[in-house]
Amino acid sequence: MATEEGDARGRTERLGFHSVDREYDTTLPVHGTLPGWLAGTLLRNGPGRFAFAEGAVDHWFDGLAMLRRFELRDGEVRYRTRFLDTEAYEAAANGAYAGFGTAPDAGLLRRVWNRLSPPDATDNTSVNVWRYGDETVALTETTALTAFDPETLDTRRRTDYPDAVDGQTTTAHPHHDRERGETVNVATRFGRQSSYQVYRVPDGSWDVESIARVSTDRPSYLHSFGLTERYVVLAEFPLVVAPWRLLAPTDESFIERFNWRPERGTRYHVLDRGTGDRVARIEGDPLFCFHHVNAYEGGAEGVSAADPSTLVVDMITFSDAAAIGSLYLEDLVGEDDPVEGGSLTRVRLDLDAGRASAETLHPGGIGLPRIAPAARRRPYRYVYGQDTGGQPVTGLPGGVMKVDVRTGEATRYRRPECAFHEPVFVPNPYARDGATGGAAAGGAPEDAGVVLTLCLDRAAGRSEFLVLDARDLTELARAPLPHALPLDFHGQFLPAWRHD
């Protein structure tokens, strides 16, 4: 049984934010029944180690990357983990580490920080996984990538985005457009002329094509963005930085150099995916967001998505950026203090009037949202996310939530003794029209499928892999892990019937 214990700084490691000291490769026992059609691999990414012999990180986002793999086949679950072989992993072993919320020590600052800007200082690719060219790669918010074997999880090579990606950071939430056969993402350049670059990468290629560029005086922290059939939507939240602060030596971490400036409001840049032209710059109320949910054209029920005059942008939002500070480990290991939970917010952008209007679809708290892949960039109905227990939030997410964006109604799977990871929707490829709910592309019900997630049972001191019916979140199967798995970030399901 896993226990809480002191880390390298004398801080108690709380389950979920604890370090693991071994890798696993085993078949998990399954209780219940996996659907016969469910075959494929769930690849997940997140921190696996927070403390080392010579030190520890300060922020949840800075734990060393460890891949998790769950292969579902013939009613069985095969489980494997591997740490990524990165420069950050090697540096941490020697007590030299800096990252998103962990500041460099003075020695490292003097030797390195005058030559490198903080966004380039880590290749700890711990946030997400993706496909570029013929390779599977791990992503973070810098331009570093780590290619790995999707079956063994062994690191193949350390690399970077091609030089055509013009920035020191890029989001770890690219959008894949299956119809156009491309991935779209956004990079941020910090400097005398700071800018956001929107770029595309064709499927099966490493070639980067720049779509558009937007200049900015004080770059915003961007973790994700919106994509519709015609447009890219950059929501420039008022958590901003003066570029010189990222170029000057300091004992502050990367994110500590950003400041909350609510008087700026939120600036929505709407860019044409075809021409690169900025078709609108709209100002709205100040808010903060890590994760976009969906975006589409046609702003009201019954309005055709082919009408581009209004855009819908759905996000999980906060009133300010305090959520970042609540994820420092010294706070996460102590008593649970009430913090603001994320709300499901819909922003309508009227391109003709240049106006943004916001409404709350669900007051929260909801975290790490996912939707059906076929519902992206079109009117949709269901969002799946962590159930963080209402407003305000106290403690770790104790369940999974499904929100109907039309009615605001929430369906829940709750186990308060557990802490839940991101839920991932997997569509049933054999589903046909006729069930209730929204309809995804091809006529299948939008919620025809399953939700895959993990939960950490703190009382038992171990984690479980869960398969839930996406229609009502009833449990179909669970597979206990042989240990407690640290809470991770994001993952992708690679179906056996289609690899994309």
TrEMBL record:
* Keywords (A to Z) from UniProt: Iron, Metal-binding, Monooxygenase, Oxidoreductase
Indicate the secretion signal residues: none
- InterPro entries (alphabetical): Carotenoid_Oase
> Where does the chain cross the membrane?
none
A GO term, aspect molecular function: carotenoid dioxygenase activity
Locate the region Disordered. Answer: 156-179
The cofactors it requires, by name, are: Fe(2+)
- Gene Ontology process terms (BP): carotene catabolic process
What family is it from? Belongs to the carotenoid oxygenase family.
Give the protein name, as stated in the record: Beta-carotene 15,15'-monooxygenase
Question: What is the organism field in this record?
Answer: Haloglomus irregulare
Q: What lineage does the source organism belong to?
A: Archaea, Methanobacteriati, Methanobacteriota, Stenosarchaea group, Halobacteria
